[in-house]
Amino acid sequence: MPLFEAVGVRKRFGGVEALRGVDFSVEPGEVVGLMGDNGAGKSTLMKVICGAYRPDEGEIRMAGRPQVFRSPRDAAACGIAVVYQNLGLVDQRSVAANVFLGQEPRRFGLVDTRRMRAEAREVLTTLRIRIPSVRMPVAGLSGGQRQCIAIARAVHQGGELVLLDEPTAALGPEQQQNVLSLIRDLRERGKAVVVVSHNVDHVLEVADRVVVMRGGLVSGMRDVATTTAAEVVGLILGNAPAAAHDGAPHPSGELA
Ligand SMILES: Nc1ncnc2c1ncn2[C@@H]1O[C@H](COP(=O)(O)OP(=O)(O)O)[C@@H](O)[C@H]1O
Ligand SMILES: [Mg+2]
């Protein structure tokens, strides 16, 4: 049974139908790369999944059970965690505080800093995230480290399905690799991940399956094991998938 399913999801903003009947599912422990041109509906779908938007039509199911999310809090209670592009970290606060943000352990009514630091260290070690000290403010961390802290928080706060929006877009090559290996670690720990990305190479590197959206619909799906970058680019551009089978770059491949 899929961990998560969206069935026939529609979402309209005034005159724009951003989602026109989307069927989308994620298996337990699966990494799905969600791709598609700008305006395809990827972010809107992510926001429906994490409870930020309510669909106009269609159903959301978690482990087979229909769910109505009134807010991201409802989705979080169901095990869905989202890391937005801005990460939502508080720069002046420590790494430990950011892992717990809003859910700090308390003792006699006060934040239990000792326990918070110990648990934060444990979370980072488990996810193989290397940070000099959990006491340092996140302002002092690199972009890649910040991304990893935001992901660690999502997992620590109970995420079974973790949604990542362009997690590697703003990073240098080495930090990109750190984030990609963190995504692999999440899968090893049985977490399911949906990663929105424009980077075909990154998706082919970490995902089990690629789902391509176009014009508010899922327009194609491929198992990573049996597809090629050219084929995925062809799907994103809306070309017949057969045209990309020879592996040659597509003549109109502006996205490549
Ligand atoms: N809050 C909104 N209000 C109005 N239109 C929106 C809103 N969010 C998205 N849209 C429109 O819905 C379509 C899909 O957008 P989006 O989900 O952001 O696509 P993507 O993330 O794939 O680039 C676009 O035409 C976009 O302009
Ligand atoms: Mg978007």
UniProtKB/TrEMBL annotation:
Q: Does the keyword Transport apply?
A: yes
Q: Which CDD domains match?
A: ABC_Carb_Monos_I
Q: What are the coiled-coil residue ranges?
A: none
Superkingdom is: Bacteria
Asked whether the keyword Nucleotide-binding is assigned, the reply is yes
PANTHER family named among the record's database cross-references: CARBOHYDRATE TRANSPORT ATP-BINDING PROTEIN MG119-RELATED (PTHR43790), SUGAR ABC TRANSPORTER ATP-BINDING PROTEIN (PTHR43790:SF8)
Keywords carried by this UniProt record: ATP-binding, Nucleotide-binding, Sugar transport, Transport
Instruction: State one molecular function term (GO).
Output: ATP binding
Q: Which organism is it from?
A: Streptosporangium album
The cross-references to InterPro entries, in alphabetical order and at most eight, read: AAA+_ATPase, ABC_carbohydrate_import_ATPase, ABC_transporter-like_ATP-bd, ABC_transporter-like_CS, P-loop_NTPase
Protein name stated in the entry? ABC-type sugar transport system ATPase subunit
The ABC transporter domain sits at 4-240
Which SMART domains does this UniProt record tie to the protein?
AAA
